[in-house]
Amino acid sequence: MPQVNRPERLGGWTRFVTARPRLALLAALVITALAVFAGSGVADRMGSGGWEAPDAESTYTTKALEREFPASQPNLLLLIDSGSTSVDDPAVAAEAARLTEKLAAEKDITGVGSYWQSKSPALRAKDGREALIAARIEGHDKAVGEVLDRIAPTYRGAHGPVKVSVGGPVAVRHEMQTIIQEDLLRAEMIALPVTLVLLVMVFGSAIAALLPLGVGIVAILGTNAVLRGITEFTDVSVFAQNLTTALGLGLAIDYALFIVRRFREELAAGADTRAAVGATLRTAGRTVLFSALTVAVSLAAMLVFPQYFLRSFAYAGIAVVLLAAAAALILLPAALMLLGPRVDSLDLRRLLRRRRSEAHREPDAAGEGWGRFATLVMRRAPVFAVLTTVGLVLLGLPFLGVKFGTADDRQLPAGAESHVVQQHIRDGFPGSPGGGLEVLAEGSATPAQYADYRNRIAALPGVLRVDGPVTEGRSAYFGVLPKGEAVGEESQQLVRELRAQPAPFDTSVTGAAAVLVDSKGAIADRLPWAVGIIILVTLLLVFLLTGSVLIPLQAVVLNALSLTAMFGAVVWVFQEGHLSGLLSFTSTGDIETTLPVLMFCVAFGLSMDYGVFLLSRIKEEYDRTGDHEHSVTFGLRHTGGLITAAAVILAVVMVAIGTSRVTNTKMLGLGIALAVLMDAMVVRSLLVPSVMKLMGRVTWWAPAPLRAFHRRFGLSEGGSAPAPAEDMSAAAPDRDRISAGA
Fold first, then answer.
1. pTM of the model
2. How far apart are CA 42 and CA 39, in angstroms?
3. Which runs of consecutive H residues, i.e. helices, occur in 301-411?
4. What distance in Å separates the CA atoms of residue 418 and residue 410, rounded to the nearest whole number?
5. By C-alpha distance, which of 447, 440, 408 is closest to 426?
6. pLDDT at position 716, please?
């Protein structure tokens, strides 16, 4: 049954975006120029943290200690290397004292202390050749970075008998932020020319190849401006810029590929330019809209988490997806109106072959190849379905051994100064530097009560040493050094035991292990909500697209299977350290807690992107013919090459991001590249056709009330509603008509 008034609505939309194409493109140029201005300097306003939950006990305790006991929370460390001389040598001690006094006199520096003042063994290397000066730089990330830039050159390098290196958490964050900006620029320089070459290979025409690239650049620049505005109101992670570049190029190219391909098909079928643009927006335009919504929903699910690291990717992702879709649905049709058949101009492939076939002829050789492949898969559907599913599950098995941790200096290259400093501390200083826990005690207490509490926590099995209390007014803090690794299971258990320990005053615990415990707890609490949002909205959107109850369920399950290889590789490579030499990173033996959540949301959204492309074309043909198997073959024949090309291009962009020297960014880029390729080349090519063959025409089943709902509110690339399940037998196709239409 035809869907009432839908063509008229889209006709109005078509008239809107094509009535004055030159004016639309000029307005886009002006808006893009303003976005360049508005988004300038956005990276300098971003933070490099955000992994901790803001409402967690550890976050409260850290802020309270920073306020009341700044010396307990140093974020700047000067590593003093005395060479072959002991750090207790008088000349070394004198120079260290001078540096300590000079640092204490610096503006915005508090809590300065050193080994030579306190004689604390924790501040002196076991070989006696190195020692530490610790201090705290006050202020927000941007202000702290400015202070570090101002003072670091003064202290770094040779000073008489000692050599000074700058480290500590603030140096790690600042160096990470600088490296990410440099790596992002390099990734763009790699991705843009390679992407252009691939687009030329796909389209043949240089003009057609430049259109998707232009849409991507508009989306990226626009998103930078949006992020610049968001930084006025909340914290945004600098890591989000990587997603902006990757999705801006990847999705814009996906959408533009789909629209330009359909536009060329319509021209080849004899339509004039305006009619071709209208048909393209009624078909591919709807698909792009649905795709953008599904990706945006997957990314928006990260807003339920409290960590601003994850929320930042939602801000960036939603903005870039919507801008990419808007550019593809408004600017691209305007450009196609002006170009018309000239979209195929400058066919560079003629240089590589002697005889040129029509670039837009359907079905072309590649399409026929995909059609034959789909027929083969469906002929052996049980074999392909079982073997592919088992293979994907096996690839995901390493993730069962995942261990979660926190990001630290080992995210940086081995030669980064702050990494070198922290590595010296880890290897050469006693105890577990950087892995200590702090217990804040608030409320009135007597020295005897403090002593009794200290003795009780010292008796806990996971405690190596307890320092303190250090008192200030009605507050005090204790330093607790765990026996195990800084964020290992033993240290996490110690956090729980410290929090359960009774005391005559209010206590709270912070430290690396406490932050990890709180972060894991926050993610575990919100993860069901995030997954539930993604699944429910995906089910609804795919139902609105297809009118089937079973296809949305199939889409969710197959998308989840497409992610198994990514998660297995993350553990096998980055946690266990395989290929660490080849990929140039330092394995910490765990995975940062928020990364799997981020990778799931991004990769699931991208998988749905390709799923919508394929399902929409299958649905369009099924509405036209009622032949289930033919429709699956038709859909794969007309989108298989397109989806594969889009996946390869997006994978190139993600691999370029994966060349980053920061481990988390490397993991994000390479992991999502793998997920995208597995989804396009395995799930869409093997699992989808084999599963749809096994399910048969029941694939399109929906109960009568939902069929009525879909006829009223659903959208699809075809102009008619899906055939009811009980009427499927009446929809037997005319083979000659199908062959002619194919």
1. 0.85
2. 6
3. 308-326, 332-339, 365-379, 381-396
4. 9
5. 408
6. 52
